[in-house]
Each structure stands twice: as structure tokens, then as C-alpha cells.
Design a protein that fits this description.
It is a single chain. The protein is of the alpha+beta class. It has five helices and three strands, in the order ααβααββα. A three-stranded antiparallel beta sheet has the order 1-3-2. The relative contact order is 0.19.
Length: about 100
């Protein structure tokens, strides 16, 4: 299970309209992911803003990046999202039931 700090970092990184749109696009793309240029074109996010958002999401371990030639492809780290959900269920919902 993820620790509280990692969970907070992931939640704060995805709690932005553009970042959520990026995450949705990458999740839909599957394991191959999308290049930064493809994300920019698909979501109409200027490259400088996109770079900032991708960096924040990668720092929070929500995305992974791989280089293929001159392109960088990003894909979702589904295990991190599952870890966030598990953390919330275990520490919020299960704990609440124990108190009832």
C-alpha cells in the first residue's frame, strides 16, 4: 500500500483540469502511450504548459516516460492509481467502518 505522502502527491498532481485531461488521454491510449506532441495536439495544450504538467505528473509517479529516437512517450502508471484508491479505501472507508 502507498504511504500518505505518496498518495497526497499523486492526488494533488491530478487535481487540475488539464492534468486530469492528460491522464484520461493517456489511459485511453493504453500501454503504448502518446508522445508529448500527440498529447499537445489532441488536447490543444501549448508545449510549455504541457511540459510543466507532464513533469508534475511524472514526479508524482502517475506517468512514466520513455524515449524513442527524438520523441518522448508518456503512459499512465496504473499501479499508482490503484495504490491511491486502495489507500483511500483502507484509511478512510475501512477505518470509518471500524469506528461505527
Amino acid at each position: 500500500m502507498m504511504n500518505e505522502d505518496a498518495t497526497m502527491l499523486a492526488l494533488s498532481a491530478i487535481a487540475h483540469r488539464s492534468r486530469l485531461a492528460i491522464f484520461k488521454a493517456l489511459a485511453a491510449a493504453g500501454p503504448r502511450g502518446l508522445s508529448a506532441g500527440e498529447i499537445s495536439a489532441q488536447l490543444q495544450i501549448v508545449p510549455s504548459s504541457l511540459s510543466f504538467h507532464l513533469k508534475e505528473m511524472t514526479r508524482a509517479a502517475l506517468l512514466s516516460a520513455r524515449r524513442e529516437g527524438t520523441y518522448i512517450y508518456y503512459s499512465t502508471e496504473e499501479s499508482v492509481v490503484v495504490g491511491v484508491i486502495d489507500f483511500l479505501i483502507e484509511t478512510c472507508l475501512v477505518e470509518k467502518k471500524r469506528l461505527e
